[in-house]
Amino acid sequence: MSGTKLEPCVPLLDIPKDELTDLVEKAKDYALMHGICMRRKDQFDRDALHFAPFVLFPSSFPRNEFNKALRLQTVLNELMHKVAHDDEFLTDSLKNTIKVDMFTKRLFDIYTKIKDQGGSPQEIDAGLFRSDYFYCLVNRRVKQVEFNTIASSFGCLTSKLVGQHKYTVQEAGYPGHLNNIPENNALSGLAGAMISAWQLYDRPQAVIMFLVEDVTYNVCDQKFHEFEIRRQCPDVFVIRRTLTDIGQRGRLSDDKRLMIDGLEVGVIYMRCGYHPDQYPTELEWDARLMMEMSLAIKSPSIHYHLAGTKKVQQELAKEGVLEKFLGDKAQMESVKDIFTGLYSLDNDAIGDKNLLKAIENPEKYVLKPQREGGGNNVYGQDIKPFLEKIKNSEERSAYILMDRISPPIIKNYMVRPGSQEPILADCISELGIFGYVIGTKDTILENKQVGHMLRTKLSHVNEGGVAAGLGALDSVYLVDIDRCC
Q1: What is the pTM of this model?
Q2: S-S: 55 plus which of 310, 370, 395, 412, CB 3.0-4.6 Å?
Q3: 484 pLDDT exceeds 50?
Q4: What is the C-alpha separation between 119 and 109, in angstroms, rounded?
């Protein structure tokens, strides 16, 4: 590592053009033959797939910090499980946000209705989580970007991409590098979590329901989970339904079983329901409430969903809060170590101070609303006019402020469908660690770390959506870096 850069795993500039072209073609073919694919938004065809954007070689990532993030995942799973079941903490954390953020308020209203009826009829929750990090150059350690509790994607595609990258590295003449590309079992681990939840539901006739969008672009990432469930457990059936389907044809039986199209739903795996656009009418909101009122085991339940909001993340970073949930001092210190600066913008003296700080030095921060799915944050010089516009409004409580993390730059070839030539670009990489927890309020039944993902984007862009072409799927290449602070 030198200055602000990490060295790529192979000397990119030494590859002759004809060899590079051959490598790219081989990598594209591998992706197409192994289902590392998506539907294109700009050329949508139900019956056609294109390979998902990827980088040609795995990207370097510090070995010690990668392993630390893996070890920490079960601690974070337990933390979020406890947070989700702490009504006082959730309510106090979101009390100002729900005054101004109508989407979060609608979710909280469902949470309140369930609570007022004595709680969910299903005591068991299943959380399929992903904790995202940048490696930060300032202090030479990973820092958490966010914790995802709903629709955590790319567990499948990045699992399969490891095989592609191992193949490409060998084809490039570097078989000795294979030991530094860690295996990734996220697909089998996440599928196994859903099977465990189905077994705990203990009704052999019940199905696992994937809650999906009206139009699914990231279809392979979803469908391979379905295929893996069938491979691991031939006895269970998987169905795919939308919120609209549930609103129109779903019902609760007298004993609160969720029924749709004559099928009993035992487990709900949500790959939808995290964005306001996915609730276009009251029908979809009624469907979400119906699911929460059912005996189906939900991933996530409404309280897990709320626990994943940015505001809760910011509240957890306050001094003395972690002690409420984690009794082990070493665990608390490990979690504090991954937190970056997170600041409230509530309409009070502390919020005023943080707002002024961001207006004076906007390049140091990222402004985040309570949204999932990317494309929602405000960066750099855009922060100042945005905050000046809302500084006297209650709307500011819908946002939190986060220190901007400075990850290292690494060169790689980005390969996109429809592009004739790979793009040699400066990139930055975001690590995600997958895990799951299953349990009741008082008892954790299963708690595991199951795999990882890497997404890489162009270094000069703020949002690196894979489908948008600004980001790409990636794998980890482990390197040893001396730690310094």
Answers
A1: 0.96
A2: 412
A3: no
A4: 13
